[in-house]
Amino acid sequence: MSNNQCASCKDKTEQCTPETCGKSMILPQNDASEIKHVIGVMSGKGGVGKSSVSSLLAISLAREGFKVGILDADITGPSIPRLFGLKARPEQFNDLLLPVKTSLGIEVMSLNLLLPAEDDPVIWRGPILSSAVKQFWTDVAWGKLDYLIIDLPPGTGDVPLTVLQSLPLSGLIVVSSPQDLAMMVVKKAIKMVRQVNIPILGLVENMSYLVCPHCGEKIQLFGPGHVAEAASANELRLLDVLPLDPELAALGDAGRIEEYKGGFNIKPILTITGEAH
Asked: H or E element: which one contains 36?
């Protein structure tokens, strides 16, 4: 065996490198999908609002006229359907599933759309979880999309690794909250992503502050954030700093997140992906 051959290559007679072998793991799009950009939203830390950030990113892109989808890869804790008030089950198109559309036309696929009740638990081991995420890519007729947003679960385990290795990611957005503890765990995710050579589009600090409804003062409930310093130290862009907004929480709980007047700063994303006008 050649010294240049990747140890994980299935065909031991084939000349390859770790880079080319890694590319061979990427799953192709099916014939009913034409997706230009795939963007993952991850953290490593739970409870920082990845699903909210994913939703706001998708909504902001849709408001600018882009065709957008969300793949809910948080199989055991899916929340995207609730945020958008989706309850319809996906229909079939030949051997594929059709995503469910939101009011703005955002295409959504989530395991919660397939369960009898949204609070039914998903008690699966890692390989089955990873297989489900792959099927949401290979067995869903996404149609023609400018952006597919992938809402990843917390941690650096099976499902995030499956997404990083199996889907053709244009890049990842990493979400943190202001606490030092959150940023410590987020740095683990950053290092994981860099080990598999996926571009990090930038960092987002969520729940950074609360605006006083009486005087307009910004109150840092969790103390001063450190995402700007982390972005600089890791040579990453700071994409956005989002507030802790009771209105967003209320609209999300009511399944009406698309009515939220705030949004996500998509200008850096459009510039990075070459979609800026």
From this structure: strand 33-42
